[in-house]
Amino acid sequence: MDNAQLQYIRSQFPILDRTVYNRQLVYLDNTATSQTPRRVVESIDASYFHTKANVHRGVFSISQEATDLMEQTRLRVRDYINAASEQEIIFTRGTTEAINLVASSWGGAFLKDGDEIILTVMEHHANIVPWQLLQNRIGFKIKVVPINERGELDLDVYRSLFTEQTRLVSFTHVSNVLGTVNPVKEMARIAHSHGAVVVVDGAQAVPHMSVDVRDLGADFYAFSSHKMYGPTGVGILYGRKELLEAMPPYQGGGEMIAHVSFEGTTFADLPFKFEAGTPDFIDIAAFPRALDFIGETGMDAIAAHEQDLLDYATARMISEVPGVRIFGTAPHKSAVISFLLGEAHHYDTGMLLDKLGIAVRTGHHCAQPLMQALGVEGTVRASFAVYNTREEVDKFIDALIKVNSMLNRI
Ligand code: PLP
């Protein structure tokens, strides 16, 4: 990506101009949430100023306009991930709610005591706890795929975990800590050969690569708008229509019914059966502006730029930061670097970096079982997006060298 293009991209994100402790912000917490381009915020403004009316209910013009805007997003998302039908696109509050929906509705209806499901040790808590909550009610067994020393899933163990009782596998497409990109297609193929349903947590994949849910073989695929330059409060659950049709509703309320009486209630068709209550229609309507930004920039260009930043930052860290330990060294890795500076505590590193204007995340990253497997309490995590630059990587590494010498007296 040339400098002019990068500067044009950055100019669309006003937050990148702000300062922290009198230094220009270097934002490297894109895995937690990415920043939002002006056009998305302008779309939200425009909805509040011109088309705010509740969706799906009104006969009046602006209610219909608001409904159209929301439903256009569903069509855009359908095409974006190559779903077969817009009925397969369910709006949720985020990846977390999407996975809870699958666990509660599909799991609640189709899992029973004696069944088995497979997760992996690199899962975000959002793809662990919903299954445990259900397990407490039902009593099925959870098996866990381990990782190797590079932070890749052990596929031999994965294969060996399947039995006659395996009903479902649920795993992340990309690790939010290690950056590892998992071989979803192959894992889905193996699961399907055992008759298991495949749930994929795509929260860290969709912002960084093109995703075709049908090509991957995902039965369910979950992701969040706020991690891909979009508004907060919007998540997507893709589900194969046959599966969604067989599932009971997740929550009850307005919008999700066909007819209600005290003698009995019938439910709306897909996708509305799973969308009880007033959705976040203004943010949903703004989401396509984030997809426009990604489309205009080009997913290949985004991926290539992020790979360049990852390679550059990793090389400088290894050669110039004595004692640094990097967690996650898979060859197929997205632009996330989890690390520790010698024995220094991750919070100390993060707080000192903040004083130098660098925003990185510290802690367990909602992946405590993975931390346990890595033998650490937490890490520092720097993660990159398309608007980051090599100059920012330089500022980050220079700051890291300083912080390392303070904390480890090197
Ligand atoms: N799954 C993964 C891999 C994540 O990285 C995250 C957020 O960091 C989530 C799920 C949860 O996403 P959300 O908080 O948007 O629901």
Give an overview in words.
The structure is a single chain. By secondary structure, the chain is of the alpha/beta class. The protein has 2 domains: 139 residues, Alpha-Beta Complex (Aspartate Aminotransferase, domain 1), CATH 3.90.1150.10; 244 residues, Type I PLP-dependent aspartate aminotransferase-like (Major domain) (Aspartate Aminotransferase, domain 2, 3-Layer(aba) Sandwich). 41% of the residues lie in helices and 17% in strands. It contains 14 helices and 17 strands. Strands 4-10-9-8-7-5-6 form a 7-stranded mixed sheet, with helices on both faces. The chain has a 4-stranded antiparallel sheet with strand order 13-14-17-16. A two-stranded antiparallel ribbon has the order 1-2. A hairpin with a 2-residue loop joins β11 and β12. α11 runs parallel beside α14 and α12 packs across α14. It is globular and about 75 Å long. The protein starts with a helix and ends with a helix. The model has no long low-confidence stretch (mean pLDDT 97). Pyridoxal-5'-phosphate (PLP) binds next to α4.
